[in-house]
Write a structure and sequence with these properties.
mainly alpha; two-stranded antiparallel ribbon; 4 helices; about 50% helix
Length: about 100
């Protein structure tokens, strides 16, 4: 298990948080959760459980190797901006 905290705001290039139309921070965990939940998958149950866990997260999560694999696959398939995908990959410890 790896302890990972994706419950952080998306940061602009200057380090300030990206805000939504209500002036609330846009959270990486919520973007990733919605990306996982919105795709078609042969592992729908495992991905739904992970999406819920990510969406509800308020700090560090214990993520299994399978969870990380699902996240990595989602990053390959999703059309995320470099700003978002890059920050998720840095938090996961990769490039």
């Amino acid at each position: 298990m790896a302890k990972i905290n994706l419950a952080v705001p998306v940061a602009n290039l200057d380090g300030t948080p990206v805000l939504d139309q209500n002036k609330e921070p846009v959270m990486l965990n919520r973007i990733l959760a919605n990306s996982i939940a919105g795709k078609q998958s042969k592992e729908a149950v495992a991905e739904w459980i992970l999406a819920q866990k990510l969406f509800k997260a308020e700090g560090e999560l214990d993520l299994s190797a399978k969870d990380i694999s699902i996240i990595e696959q989602t990053l390959k398939e999703a059309k995320m901006t470099t700003l978002i995908e890059g920050q998720i990959r840095v938090i996961l410890g990769g490039e």
